[in-house]
What does this fold into?
Amino acid sequence: MLGRMEGKYDVVVIGGGPAGMGAALGARDSGSERVLILDREPDPGGILLQCIHSGFGLHYFKEELTGPEYAERFLENVIDQEVDLLSNSYVSGISYDSSGSKGVHVMNEKYGLSTVETKSVVLSMGCRERTRGAIRIPGTRPSGIITAGLAQKFVNMKGVLPGKRVAILGSGDIGLIMARRLVLEGCEVVGVFEIMPYSNGLTRNVVQCLEDFEIPLHLSTTVAYIHGKDRVEKITVAPVDEKLKPDMNRAWDIPCDTLLLSIGLIPENELSQSLGIKLDLLTGGPQVNSTLETSMPGVFTCGNVLHVHDLVDFVTRESLLAGQFAGEWAQGVRRPNDNIRLLPGNNVHYCVPHSLSPEREHTIYMRCQKPMKPCRLHIGDLKQKKLRFVVPAEMIMVKVKPELLEKFRGDTLRIDILPAEEKTD
Amino acid sequence: MYDVAIIGGGVIGGSIARELSRFQLDTVLLEACAEVGFGTTKTNSGIIHPGHHSSPDTLKGQLVVRGNQLYDSLHQELNFGFRRIGEIVVAQSREDLPILEQLKKQGEEKGVPGLEMWDKARLQREEPNLSHTLLAALYAPSAGVINPYEFVFALLENAIANGVVLKVNSPVTKIEKREKILLLQTPGETLSARFVLNCAGVFSDKISQLVGLEDFTIHPRKGEEYMLDKRLKGLVRRLVFPVPKASTKGTLIIPTFDGTIMVGPTAEDTEDRYDASTTYEGSDRVFQFVNKICPSITERDTITEFAGLRAVSSTNDFIIGPTRVPGFINVAGIQSPGLTSAPAIAEYVRDILIEEGLLLEEKESFNPFVASPPRFAMLGLEKQRELIEKNSLFAKVACRCELVTEAEIHDAIDHGARTLDGIKFRSRAGMGRCQGGFCSIRCMDILAERLNQSFTDLSKRGSNSWIVTEMVNEQHPKMREG
It folds into this structure.
């Protein structure tokens, strides 16, 4: 599908998932001629390809699609728009010279080790799942402990089951989706165990994937020990105290042959780090200005590598924007620096982007630290928005109009989520 | 009939097999697991000790310095990952200072080269990321790190190339004494041998009981290790030891051969000979301790953890030598510094066999060399290009965290990998921060194709460690309704 690798590209997009495809289309929209997507997988589409359940596109297309269908729509556009696409390609690094021109180093079976010249870059490598090591679950190390995403790939792409009697640690969305998927395939799902006092997945997934199938969700409970020599034989689960320490006096054993982990996602920023791009410790993704540009000029980013999203629809919206700005950058457009820094305040875990400019309308994406209801979102003293409830699992979005920002005097705009009753000055 | 049957394919059995492959002998090695090196060896800290920690009054204390020296030539011949990075024993308090002096004296008497006492200023200059409260350190430049499983793979590959027969999935269940020979029974066959070398690690007392010997017991001592994210590479350049305690050398900071920092091990006696469990207590102990020595290391940096068993014997020393049963020789109780001593143990056992009447004639055809497995990620650009030119699968990345190419997965299978862990420990695919989340399926695709098996036939590490199972045909009532 690659036209010509030689010559210089306007925009090279790293990652061919929904974010990468959105960014490539955004770049074409901006008028950039030569756009290339580099994807490490055999087929573009990213994780969407293994998400055969429906529920994608409700916001963006106003209809309900499966993951592969959602990917297909973008892929068709990518082909229509004559975006170059190189699959099975691994980006080993990016170099740059003082003129701002960049070289993307690619490994690919057909082209060997090559360097693609480009004016701007979009990083859209997505995220990976946290593993057992990250939370150090005690016990033996048998087979049968895998991440929910890998289990999903086994079932949906390879037609095999990760096991017959399955426990799920963590209530992330992939874990919830897999609970339902495995029950539909005839497995027994013995329960979902979540260390926090609230679910880490979307409410709709808790209802549609667990409650509808009578799968128990145990909140404030964790897996305290894994048993089994060769294969998982049972797990010990225990309620946790306020410090999240398991109370072993109240622990109980559950026989099972499989433990799925759905304990969080980590933006894959090893490439960004190797470039010296500044990261936000709270999101795990790069710090970006309002054009979704990283601390390295001409390098933009979007999707789950920037911050983990709940819905692909929002990834698409963000990536079209990132692609648009990357395309403009390639064409020589340089915007004035943002002059308003965003500061996460009360009950705000993070906000993206990290700064704003009064010259355009912006959408600020954020997550809260803990559930709260009802509450009010305060954008400094420029704007307030009533929210019925907030939970960490559901991203909060707010639009800010330029008229509003023009009124702002100062350089730091603080964002707070406060209980609705509470009055602020 | 074999001249020698070795029971156990860990670093001891492997070292002896390779040593014996120099001679005109028929040697067989029987390994209970699906892969060699998957017992105590795999979970070893991978340290080649200078030798000053163990008393010269013990057999282990006598073999360790020689073992350390032999690693240079072995490394040149067998091409496993090995680097002498040096170690420091650090003093945390005034009471530790005389112990450092004592260790230095003991080391010098035993011929440990290059020992140096570092004062606080020197220590801070050499290892600036260690706690500034440390008072002094004893530096030993001859300490090294290796990947112990790679060492065993290389030893056995070379032994096999020189005529040794390897049988995996072959636990010895019965040994019968006949006149001048011993009959060994495994699930698949019965073998006979003149000499049997018991290198069965934590099971060596059980093997010895098969011939009616009860003179020692093994008391496994568990060690938990915690592997940290690669981004900490370079934080500490040398192995860091606290001053040693009676039962253990203490919790260490280990910059592994691959550059990843590992912390551990703990030392906990256990009854269960399969106990490879990690615990909350172990993790707390390791990180509380390490944090005092290197404050920037925290448990949040962990990418994986594991545990292994030391084969501690009832004599607390190596038990190597002939027994009341003619032809049955123990090579047991090999605890630390067993890995370091292994090459010297192999020589020692060779000499015992000669004394016991085995005639050793050198083989002219003996080839001591093993080619290094391709390590794409560690090569420079030019070398990488060369490899890709020869085989385009070197440009196809299988494991992105550790940059392992599909060519290397094939190479691992060519060199004996039959399980997913077999591939992992030979190629590093799956060892990185995503812990196989992304590459497992690619590796399984290749393994299934090469072995002409389906996914459901593949295992993590043999026996009952299956990875996936077949789809069931029964559908949920909800689906049927729909």
